[in-house]
Design a protein that fits this description.
Layout: H1 2-18, H2 24-50, H3 52-61, E1 66-78, E2 84-94, E3 97-110, E4 113-117
Antiparallel strand pairs: 1-2, 2-3, 3-4
Length: 120
């Protein structure tokens, strides 16, 4: 019986390493990158419509800052359009408290990292 244990464990490990499903760490990085881009886009819009003084006020108020306090992968399945549709929970600290959400989004590989979109 012990003779079969090592090969079975090795096969399972190889199969898991060949999976193209995003890891929790990769999902968190993709989500954080997406959120950072959205904040920057909002600041760019404020700069275009109200000027640099308005951007300075946003930065002073701290409403452009966030920190991901927790992230947990809840499950994924392959998406017909490519990548994986995944559910996850996220805790985000913002200036006026914490946001706790359970979200679903699509994660797909672009170049050497996963990208997150909410177009599911």
């Amino acid at each position: 019986m012990r003779l079969w244990t090592v090969p079975i464990v090795a096969i399972v490990a190889v199969m898991l390493s060949l999976s193209d499903e995003p890891s929790e760490r990769a999902m968190r990085a993709a989500f954080e990158s997406n959120l950072t881009t959205q904040v920057q886009n909002a600041l760019d819009f404020v700069a275009e419509t109200a000027g640099p003084e308005a951007v300075a006020k946003v930065r002073e108020a701290g409403t452009d800052r966030f920190a991901i306090q927790g992230f947990r992968k809840l499950g994924c399945h392959r998406d017909a359009r490519g990548g994986h549709v995944c559910r996850f929970s996220v805790d985000i600290a913002v200036i006026d408290g914490d946001l706790r959400e359970e979200l679903t989004g699509r994660f797909y590989m672009r170049e050497d990292a996963f990208v997150f979109t909410q177009d599911v």
